[in-house]
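Internal ticket - ligand job 234, 2-phosphoglycolic acid:
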Amino acid sequence: MKFIIGNWKMNGDKKLLNEMESVLADVTTENKVVLCVPFTLLGAGNGKVALGAQDVSAHEKGAYTGEVSASMLVTSGAKYVIVGHSERRAYHGETNEDVRAKAEMALENGITPIICVGETMEEKRVGRTFEIIEKAVRESVPKNVQKDIIIAYEPRWAIGAGITPTRQEITEAHKLIADTLGNMDLAGTPILYGASVNGSNVAEIVSIENVDGVLVGGASLKPGEFVLIINNAK
Ligand code: PGA
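stdout (structure tokens):
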């Protein structure tokens, strides 16, 4: 079983969600398929495909205009939430500490957080990839986790870029994350790869050791391509 998680970002509408659901209804797979959609679409599904959100507030409730709490996500039917996506880190200044607080809030409410980590091109260029990834895992993952969490390794320079790291780069990053999680008593936590995944490269990517699935951006908006990804990820 591999996780195939779509991240629609700020795209999609009810029509696309319903189209995707009807296409997915004909797919037989052992893989776990989840669509992380905009908040406004969480209640628009037919309940057959697991839905997730793309962010959650670090606060429980109160004067936080524009934010959406984890308990509100539960009410809307979300089972998963992406936290610390690189676009949140880049455009909203989210730190590892912010991401951990959000992940804690998700866990307290019974939602599985998909915690994203990954290096920028500049960090890669100066040889800091491993340091950045390890620090992000240590600092973004809540302490004393008893429930399910998912980690997504997304090299930030490869997101939406149509390029993927080499097999060796993915192997090394995922091994580092697996070892770090092992040291935190979290061995066995699923580790997904994300960035420029498509129907043609997914088979190779999920064949790499410690790759338990994929987080898919652009290609998750195209029903045919998304089904190819689901079918080719074995
Ligand atoms: P991409 O995005 O698949 O379009 O590269 C991945 C992501 O940002 O999660």
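Auto-summary: DSSP finds nine helices and eight strands in the chain. The first helix runs from residue 14 to 24.
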